[in-house]
Amino acid sequence: MKRIIFFALAVSACDGPPADKPRAAPVNGRTYVETNDDFMGGLSLVSTESALVEGQRPEISASCNQDGAPSLHLSLVHAPDRPPPLRGVFADFRFGGWPKQHVEMAWFDKGRWMPREKDADRRLVRAMLKADHVSVTMPGAYVAKREFEWDIHTSPADVRRMRKACTK
User: Fold this and answer.
1) Cα dihedral: 68, 127, 119, 57 (round 10)
2) Where do the domains of the chain lie, and which CATH numbers do they carry?
3) How does the average pLDDT of the chain come out, rounded?
């Protein structure tokens, strides 16, 4: 019985909906901050692309878990037609007017990708929190389209929340 009460308290302390509640379908070019699931804790800044791929909107998300470790994830909807190699798949990121960043990526499920190296995660999340626009060019062999773009529309309060979560 105590475990059930403890779990209920832990869920009610979160800013977001319970983990078993389905997330609303993202709308055209939406950016929002959400509380990560109970396992990871922390916050995520999620932005959806305006263009549909297979009826869904590609997403880019910057997350910082409870210990402040940042991570960046791409959900590009389309799973590769053939598994990509374990090494040697690179993406080019542009954040606003910043120079291009060439980053090795790891594919982990369906259309989801993340930087292979943790130092790239930190660098990319910091750049995303300062940018109002992000574009990513992926190798055409593994995605439905090569270029993805997101406009990041966040309130100053949400950016402060994310920076605080990422710098514990």
Assistant:
1) 80
2) 25-166 (2.60.40)
3) 78
How many angstroms from the chain centroid is the CA of residue 6? 29
Beta strands in 110-166 (DSSP E): 112-115, 133-137, 147-151
- The fraction of the chain above a pLDDT of 70, given in percent, is 79
Contact between residue 74 and residue 125 where contact means Cβ atoms under 8 Å apart: no
Residues 73-90, mean pLDDT to the nearest whole number: 91
* 126 φ, ψ (degrees, to nearest 5): -60, -45
DSSP state of 36: P
Q: How far apart are CA 38 and CA 45, in angstroms?
A: 16
Region of 29 (left: φ > 0; alpha: ψ -120 to 50; beta: rest) is left
